[in-house]
Amino acid sequence: MPEHTDTPKEKILVYIRAEKQKTLHRRQVCINDIASVYCKYSRYEGQIKGMIVDKIRGKKSVISVMKIIEQITEIYDDAQVISIGEPEVLVEYDDNSKNKILEALKVAAVCILIFFGSAFTIMAFNNDISISGVFEHFYKQIMGVDKPQVSVLEVFYCIGLAVGIILFFNHIGKRKLSDDVTPIQVEMDKHNKDTWNTIIDKVKEKQDV
What we know:
The chain has 209 residues and is α/β, with parallel strands linked by helices. It has seven helices and ten strands.
C-alpha cells in the first residue's frame, strides 16, 4: 500500500476516462490498461495507473468504473475520482494462439464469397429487369438501327455502376475520397453499439452467476 507522505491539504482530484473495449494479452488488468488517468500530482497518477483492478476470467470480462473508483478511494481516502468516460469496459483476453495462415485463409474465403456473391446479385438484377432488352429498345430509338452485341450503353453502364459503388462507399481500398460519413458507416456504427451493449449484458450475466 502506498505511503501517504506530504499529502496535500485539498482534495486529490483524479480524472478517469475509461475505454469502451480493450484487448489484452495477459489476464491481469491494471487501471492504465483500460483507462486514461490524470491527476495534478504526478506521483499519485503513476501509482493509480499501476493499480491492479481485476483479472480476466475466460475470454471476456466486464469491469465497472465504480469498481475502479472504489479501489482508488480505499487507498486514497482524500481522493475525489471523476469519471468522464464509459461506465463499463469490455476486456477481452487474447493469448496470441491464432493461426495466422488460417486467419489469412478465412479472409481470402470471405473476399471470394463477397466478390462472386455481389457479381451474381448484379447479374440476377439485370436479368430480372431485362436490361439487355431495355438497351436494345433504347439504342434503336436513338440510333435508328439495331444495337450491336456490345455497344456504348453497356460500356458506360459498367463504368457508372463501378463509380456509383465507389462514391456510395466513399472508399478506394484504404483511402477515403472525402471526410463525409457514408450511410454504411452510420449503420455499422449503430450495429457496433448494439453488439457492444449485447455482449456487455451477456458477459455480466455470466459473471453474476
